[in-house]
Structure formats: C-alpha cells, structure tokens
Fold this protein.
Amino acid sequence: MPPRRPPSPTPPIDGTDGALAARATGTSLLHTAVRYYSLTKPRVLYGNVLTAAAGFLFASPGRINIVLFLVVCLGTTLVIASACALNNVLDRDIDTVMARTKKRATVTGGVGARHAVIFAAALGVAGMAMLVAWTNWLVVAVGVGGFLAYVVLYGMLSKRMSVHGTLVGSLSGAAPILGGYVGAAGVLDAGGAVAFLMLFLWQLPAFYSIAIYRRDEYARANVPVISVVRGIPRTKIQILVYTVAFVLVSLLPQLLGYVGASYTAVMGLLGAGWIVLAVRGVTAADSYGWARMMFRYSLMVMTAVSVMLAVGPRLP
C-alpha cells in the first residue's frame, strides 16, 4: 500500500474571516439600533423638544441656567421618546393599513412588541428620573400629564373612539413647551399659559390638514378623524377658525410684556400669511394639494414660534 500523505497543514489565519465577522456583527448592531431609534418617531420627537427648549428660553429673559436647560431638554426627550415608542405598539393594527406607517418596525416585525415595550419603559424611567432628581415638581407633573394624555387618553381611547381625538392629542403636544417654561420659571403664570395655548391651537390646523390629505387612509383604518366623520368642507372651516385663534393668541406675548416688537412683527406677518392660505382653502378645488401646502406652512410657523419665543425676550 502506498504510504499515507501527511495531513495538510492548517492554513494560516490572516484575519480576513474575523474581520468579516466583526463587520457583519457591527452592521447587525447598527441596523438594530436604527430600528429601535425609529420607534421614537424622530421627526415628532425633535419637533417637540424644540418647543421645550423654546419654552425654557422664553421663561429665561436674563441669565440662562445651562445645566438645568440641558437636564430639562434631555429628560423631556426621553419621556417623549418613551411615549412615541409605546404609541408604535398600540397602533400596529392602524399602521398596517396606512401607507405612511406600514413600514414601521413594529409592523414589519423588525422590533417585537415586547421588546418595544421594554425599550419604552427604559426610556421613560430614565427620563422621569432625571426630571425628578434635577427639576421641580411642575416639570414632573407636566411630563407625567403629557405622557398619559398621549399614550392613554389619545392613543388608547380618543383616537379610536371619537372625532375629538385630535383635540386630546393636542394637549400632549403642547405639554413640552409648558414643561420647558415651568422648568425655568418654577411657576405657572400667564407666560406659560399663553405658550401652552399657542402650541395647542397650532396643532389643530396642522393635523386637520393631514386629516384631509390622508383622509382615505384614515377611513380604511377606521380612525374617526374629522375629515372622515364630518367631511372635508367642515374640516376646512375648522382649520380656518383655529388658524385665526392661533394667530390672535400668538400676538399676546408683547401685550403681556414678555417680548418686544420684533417678535410681534415676525409672528404677525407669518400669521397673516397663514390666515390668507386658510381662507383660500375654503373654496379650493384641489383640497388635497391645498391641505399639503397648509401643513408645510404650519411647520414653518411652528419653527418660527419656537425661535421667536426663545429670542424674543432679548430683542427690541
């Protein structure tokens, strides 16, 4: 018999396989992090945090406590992120049939419901712990109230059961600016009330506009938004009414002595433009196109409100 060949030597390890495995692991971790991050609804989250920062700066016309500002903003961010993540879990049945939400991680299975709830709980506990430890009881009360209003009163109940769901949701949407304000001021006064009312009123024409151009999707999902229950013409009238109400309230800060004429000039000009657009919408033939324009304008108004409240006390 021919002699056996000796076994082949073990091939040298050049690190290529290990590098590929490490890269794959890193990519997987990144994708997982992105899926969890998406549960926080980043665009909604950062819009709300912007208003919280504006509220704090509006209530700090003099020296700004930077540490407290950062704590209020970060704690509020975590609490809002927690509420948004829970909303993803609650709305899975609705999100499945709506084009803009059917790719959410809780719908596609990218993040399971149980893991999403654990993630939301961790965010909420961390955020509330920060607010309890370093802010005042008013900030904590606003944070808890806004969280419950969004998750329970809106997400679990009114959104599915009543045409007034947007009104309820607007309470939670206005909570961040109030939380920022009382975080700096330590009291709830006329300035905080006006800031809260502005954000509350701003949301109604903004989200009623979404209800128009997303009407068919809401109807398929059996969500009783105003455009589905009462029709588009009545929704347009409501948009006009709330737009005028917002503009009137947005001009109060100077009358109350919180800001100067610069604030009023900017907000008066933008408000007048928004009212003109709302009036045109009443007779607009292309309701969907007009509603999209109305919503885009509302985003500009919200950004302007936040900026002008922040710098208004420091301008003439």
Notes: Residues 8-15 have pLDDT under 50 and may be disordered.
